[in-house]
C-alpha cells in the first residue's frame, strides 16, 4: 500500500514567519511531487510541483525534495493570514502511467496576525 | 486562466437513486480523473481516463460507478445506486501531458439521504 504521510497539525505561525510543512512517502520509485492548498470546503489548488532533488522556488514558496530520504517539504516565507489553509502533499505513484495521485492527510496551517 | 468546471456544486439524492456528476475539463487536456474526499478525510483517487477509456481505477470504483466522455468536452461520473457512504466531495481533474500537474475543479458536494 503506497502511503503519503503528513503531520495533520495544526501548525501555528505568526504573520511574517516561515512556515515549514513536511511530507514523507513510501513509494521509492515515485518521481513527481506536488503541493496543493485547500481552503475549507474548497478544491485542491496547485501551489508547487517538484521532480528533481533539491530546492525549487516560486515567489514566497520553496519546495524541497530528497528522494533518498523519501521526503518532500514546503517552505512558506513571510507567511500571511491568507495562507491559512490545509496543505496537501500529493505523489504521483511511480508505477502508474496514468498519473494517479496519492494524497496525504494534509497539514492545517494557521497564520496569526 | 482556463479551469475545470463541475456541475452541480451540490447534489442531494435519495439512497438508491442514480446520480450523474458532470465535468468540463480544460480544453486540449488529454488525461481526466475523478477523486473524492469524504468529510475530514484524505482526497482519494477513483478513476483515470485517457484515450476514451479507463486507464486505471481504484477499489472504490466498483460496478456501481461508471465514467463517460460523451461528446469530447464533458466528462461524467455516474453512480448507479447510491449508498449513504457515497456522500462526499467529488473532484474532477485534468492535465494536458503525462508530465504535467493535475488541475482540479471546484467539486460537487454529494449528499445521500
Q: Top keywords for this entry?
A:
heterodimer; A: 113 residues; mainly beta; 6-stranded mixed sheet; 5-stranded antiparallel sheet; 0% helix; globular; B: 113 residues; 7-stranded mixed sheet; 4-stranded antiparallel sheet; 11 strands; 50% strand
Quick recap:
With 113 residues, chain A is mainly beta. Chain A has no helices and eleven strands.
Topology:
The complex is a heterodimer of chains A (113) and B (113).
Chain A: E1 4-5, E2 11-14, E3 19-25, E4 32-38, E5 45-50, E6 54-58, E7 61-66, E8 71-76, E9 85-92, E10 101-103, E11 107-112
Parallel strand pairs in A: 2-11
Antiparallel strand pairs in A: 1-3, 3-8, 4-5, 4-9, 6-7, 7-8, 9-10, 9-11
Chain B: E1 5-7, E2 10-13, E3 19-24, E4 31-37, E5 43-50, E6 53-57, E7 65-68, E8 75-79, E9 88-95, E10 103-104, E11 108-112
Parallel strand pairs in B: 2-11
Antiparallel strand pairs in B: 1-3, 3-8, 4-5, 4-9, 5-6, 7-8, 9-10, 9-11
Can you give a write-up of this model?
- With 113 residues, chain A is an all-beta fold.
- Chain A is built from no helices and eleven strands.
- Chain A has strands at 4-5, 11-14, 19-25, 32-38, 45-50, 54-58, 61-66, 71-76, 85-92, 101-103, 107-112.
- Chain A is globular and about 45 Å long.
- Chain B is an all-beta fold.
- The mean pLDDT of chain B is 94.
- Classes of the chains: A mainly beta (113), B mainly beta (113).
- The interface between A and B is medium-sized, with 23 and 24 residues.
**E-strand count of chain A:** 11
The arrangement of helices and strands of chain B along the chain is: EEEEEEEEEEE
Tell me the overall shape of chain B: globular
Helical content of chain A (DSSP H or I, runs of 4+): under 10%
Q: Note the total helix count of chain A.
A: 0
- Average pLDDT reading of chain A: 93
Termini Cα gap of chain A? 40 Å
List segments of chain B where confidence is low: pLDDT < 50 over at least 5 consecutive residues: none
Q: What percentage of the residues of chain A does DSSP assign to strands (E)?
A: over 45%
Q: List the quaternary state of the chains.
A: heterodimer
Please, how many helices of chain B? Answer: 0
Structural class by SSE content of chain A: mainly beta
Average residue pLDDT of chain B: 94
Number of strands of chain B: 11
